[in-house]
Design goal:
The chain contains no helices and 15 strands. It has strands at about 15-20, 25-30, 35-40, 45-50, 60-70, 90-100, 110-115, 120, 125, 130-135, 145, 150-155, 165, 175-185, 190-195. Strands 1, 2, 3, 4, 5, 6, 7, 10, 11, 14 and 15 form an 11-stranded mixed β-sheet that branches. The chain has a two-stranded antiparallel sheet with strand order 8-9. It has a two-stranded antiparallel ribbon with strand order 12-13. The two termini are about 30 Å apart.
Length: about 200
């Protein structure tokens, strides 16, 4: 089954897979074919397993809720030469209850987050993210980046170091920056800053 927005023919690596304005009704789709890029916008209640090659190594998600993304194939389904990291996963607000799972740590590239300091419909301060988590392997426990209240959690530091959280409206985060989330086997997940002025990653919000 193919998500709304795909033509009836199988996608090709010349095609951008656009999952736009879709309520998946809690269904799941597997994308096996090669595509140029994947764009997920204004969609909800679905799972996408991205197993095929992504030519530009870019996936974008914006204005979504209740989304689960599984990226790559498991080690059992890949030879060593076939495993490549996803270059850029760009996540722009608003996003609510989004889970990112990599099939294996070797698929992890850079995640770009663009927190937007604003207020929600009830007038409460927000960064535009809530309940956003990530796993480097589908069997790992999730690492919470933004909790249900929209508080930013920097990944657990080394033993003895103080954990850092930043709540919306409290300050302490330079909102002129994008955040880069990366992973390695020794240090686990890390968050560092990227200046928006560099314009490497145009913000979709």
């Amino acid at each position: 089954m193919l998500p709304l927005g795909l033509p009836a023919r199988p996608p090709t690596f010349h095609l951008t897979l656009s999952v736009h304005d879709l309520d998946g009704a809690d269904r799941s789709w597997v994308v096996e074919s090669a595509v140029a890029k994947i764009s997920i916008f204004n969609s909800q209640n679905l799972t996408l397993h991205l197993r095929g090659r992504i030519l530009t190594s870019t996936v974008e998600a914006f204005k979504c809720r209740n989304i689960r993304l599984i990226i790559g194939r498991s080690d059992q389904d890949n030879s060593a030469d076939e495993v490549q990291p996803l270059g850029t996963l760009q996540l722009d607000p608003p996003l609510e209850n989004v889970t990112i799972e990599y099939a294996a740590p070797q698929h992890v590239g850079k995640m770009i987050l663009a927190p937007l300091a604003t207020r929600d419909g009830a007038g409460r301060p927000t960064f535009g993210f809530s309940s956003l988590s990530v796993r480097a392997n589908t069997t790992d426990a999730p690492t919470i980046l933004f909790d249900g209240d929209g508080v930013l959690h920097f990944p657990t530091p080394a033993a003895g170091e103080r954990a850092v959280t930043i709540a919306p409206g409290v300050g302490g985060l330079d909102m002129a920056r994008q955040l880069v989330v990366s992973h390695n086997e020794e240090q686990g997940w890390r968050i560092t800053g990227l200046e928006r002025g560099e314009k490497d990653y145009p913000v979709m919000a």
